[in-house]
Amino acid sequence: MLDTVQPSLAALPPVESDSLLALIALCNADPRPEKIDVGVGVYRDAVGNTPILRSVKKAEKLLWERQRSKGYLGSRGDVRFAQLLRPIVLGRHADDARIDTLQTPGGCGAVRLGLQLIAAANPAARVLIGTPTWPNHPPMAEGCGLEVVRYPFYDADRRVVRFDAMIAALETARPGDVALLHGCCHNPTGADLDPQQWHTVTRIVAERGLFPLIDLAYQGLGRGLDEDAEGARGILDACDEAIIAQSCDKNFGMYRDRVGTLFVKTADRDSTAKAMAHVLQMAREMWSMPPDHGAATVRTVLDDEALAADWRAELATMRERINTVRAEIARADPRLAYIAGQYGMFSMLPLTLEQVRALRDQHAIYMADSGRFNVVGMSDDALPRFIAAVIEAMDG
Ligand SMILES: Cc1ncc(COP(=O)(O)O)c(C=O)c1O
């Protein structure tokens, strides 16, 4: 008999559970009817629902009537869908033949695929990530075998971007290192770069030969579709090579349908074609092809003038609600005034871990331990109670 130990799945180390998933489970188990869940990152309307958009519902009906086959689409996914997104995401760069696109399973799939492509071309690239960031960014980079370099992005005491620290990190990076940038509506802080800061970052990225990877998961939920994409478009103005990872999951409210796209730009069409061949091979290895329904629905919306106009109106309604709630929270206390100057669904409250826990125990208000909360996580009815409880916690 061999005396070696047979490798076994039982030898796997335990995985630290995702604290946000644990929070959701805790909240679900809480029997108090007045509970408020501002932990999970989905849009909720004035009555606390995460609605299916009108335009999406109509498009799904049309799709059901019109779709004649569920045959395979291929690794590129829905080509027309990706084409229709070009003007929305790329704006003045929509006709640039050096930029190619494919459909991915959500923004997450796009970020992962983009990092994987960079790792294939330059395994020595390091990924510069400002912290705090979306918790999935570092493991996705490391999962591609890339080293992560963290720099402080946000000053939690002064509630502003630590722009000097960001610039220092970019200025000391090596050519080919990846600048992973939030396109808009920074998750978790809500603190976006202003146009002047984007200009400076873009100049440094271009001058130092860094590789820009822009994560554009919340386009249209901050200032507007064009305004929210301007940082990414400025990067495309200045850089020969860039990647944009885009998601329709938030701005079409299609979270579970996993709708995203990857945009790859290189210096010339031949290099783009070569990069895309790699991307398609990688997609084939990971998920073979993306799910159809969400992208086909978005395509149906964007291909129909009336539905597309309705979607823009619905997106504006979501954006206005986010900004109205922000203003209301900001007005309630000078210590919360900064929230009105931030964008997107998230901000961080100036609370200690004990205060976050007290909100949970005493008021059934559930938010991440970091104090990150979903600005539109509660109904209009619950908002005054939320604000009062947060002020009480800050005072205590
Ligand atoms: C910053 C950021 N990037 C990407 C994603 C991924 O989005 P999706 O649900 O489309 O995969 C998220 C989702 O929460 C996010 O917050």
What does this structure look like?
The protein has two domains: 9-52 and 312-395, Aspartate Aminotransferase, domain 1, CATH 3.90.1150.10; 55-305, Aspartate Aminotransferase, domain 2, CATH 3.40.640.10. Helix content is 44%, strand content 14%. The chain starts with 18 loop residues before the first helix and ends with a helix. It is globular, with a radius of gyration of 22 Å. The longest helix has 28 residues, at 305-332. The chain has 396 residues and is α/β, with parallel strands linked by helices. It has a seven-stranded mixed sheet, with helices on both faces. The protein contains 13 helices and 13 strands. Helix 5 (137-143) links the parallel strand 3 (126-131) and strand 4. Bound molecules: pyridoxal-5'-phosphate.
Describe the protein's topology.
Layout: H1 19-29, E1 36-37, H2 54-66, H3 79-90, E2 99-105, H4 106-121, E3 126-131, H5 137-143, E4 147-152, E5 154-155, E6 160-161, H6 163-171, E7 178-182, H7 195-208, E8 211-216, H8 225-238, E9 242-247, E10 259-265, H9 269-286, H10 293-302, H11 305-332, E11 346-348, H12 353-363, E12 365-366, E13 372-374, H13 383-395
Helix pairs in contact: 2-10, 2-11, 3-10, 4-9, 6-7, 7-8, 12-13
This protein binds pyridoxal-5'-phosphate (PLP).
**Strand count:** 13
Could you give the order of strands across the largest sheet? Answer: 2-10-9-8-7-3-4
Please name the CATH topology of the largest domain.
Aspartate Aminotransferase, domain 2
Kindly give the count of domains: 2
Largest sheet: 7 strands, mixed
Task: Describe the global form.
Answer: globular
CATH architecture of the largest domain: 3-Layer(aba) Sandwich
Mean pLDDT: 96
Helix and strand sequence: HEHHEHEHEEEHEHEHEEHHHEHEEH
Helix content: 40-55%
Q: Give the DSSP E fraction (strand runs of 2 or more residues).
A: 5-15%
Backbone CA Rg: 22 Å
Structural class: alpha/beta
CATH classification class of the largest domain? Alpha Beta
Which runs of at least 5 residues are low in confidence (pLDDT < 50)? none
Per DSSP, the total helix count is: 13
CATH homologous superfamily of the largest domain - what is it?
Type I PLP-dependent aspartate aminotransferase-like (Major domain)
Distance between the termini: 67 Å
Bound molecules: pyridoxal-5'-phosphate
